[in-house]
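Why does this matter for the project? Reviewers at the last site visit asked to see concrete outputs rather than summary tables. In response, this paragraph embeds two records directly. Each consists of the residue sequence and, immediately after it, the corresponding structure tokens. Nothing has been edited or filtered.
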Amino acid sequence: MPTRQFNIWRKALPNVMYANTYGPTEVTVDCCYYIVDRELSDNEPIPIGYACENSSILILNEKNELVKPGEIGELCVRGVGLALGYYNNQEKTDAVFVENPLQKNYRELIYRTGDLAKYNEYGEIVYIARKDFQIKHMGHRIELGEIETALAAVEGVWRVCCLYKKAGEKIVAIYEGEISRSEIIAGIKEVLPKYMIPNIYYKIDQMPLNMNGKIDRKRLQEEYVDASN
């Protein structure tokens, strides 16, 4: 949930306990949780917090080492809820259900979620974006999810999706809202470096959703990025 919208709920219902849970089906759903016990700014993502009991989280960098505070890596899970793999799909199983590279004493299976995460200054786990949404732009490695978080915090932006146009190397922002391109840029230029500010903006009436109720990024890619000149 975008933090700006969450803060509206929290202000309206201040005595409710709010919890953010995270987990893929492959680890029997929830493996992380966060009880919101402090104030969150509109441009700060809601943490996914800490590992649930009987689960353990490893955030690994490209060298298969544990990340340092603030460093982004792939979130991996181990524990009693871990599946053995995908039924009748050994190739997909072998790609993501792998041996723990940190365990040298015995065989131990972990699941590579494909999600990028990091530890914030409080030691909480913060979800960044899917690994597939990481791009290389102007010599910088960028997570599109971080741009989306900044855009979603701007007053007047209701929903937003960021994509990348490889031809011409452009970051594309597609959004619902009642705000102009120049107003969006004014709202994010203080929190994002220049190389992360989108180059192209599309304002649409309604964001397409997939069967899971999430933004249909594939459809947006086809209609607004691949089809454009």
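We now turn to the second protein, recorded in exactly the same manner.
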Amino acid sequence: MLTIDSEKVARIVEQARMFDAKEGVSDPDSGSNAIDDGMVDVLEDLPGDPTKDELMECIRGLNEDEQAELVALAWIGRGTYEGPEFEAAVSEARRAHNSRTAEYLISLPMLGDYLEEGLYAVEEAEATAGDKEN
């Protein structure tokens, strides 16, 4: 059963998507007006940009159980597990847990999408299981 607050997951999804949108620096000596450049520098991963740090801190701020569930949601979202296998995915995530969970998660190139799809699959599986019990 999913215990991490879906609002926390939604906030991490939003931050992950902002981070995923970043690209390498394409104009290191940009001195022109950002509006003239179509605001493309906003998408560059420049030194001092807090996007990555904010995402890392948000993940690190979760307790160990929440981090394990977040990893399990990412695995379900990318297809490693199915929604009904959530408990098995959480068990494996707990077994593999270490102090680098945030680094691992942000290394996934579509983390925001994986988390959103995983959350949907788990909620769908829980709803289906609840219907069968009634």
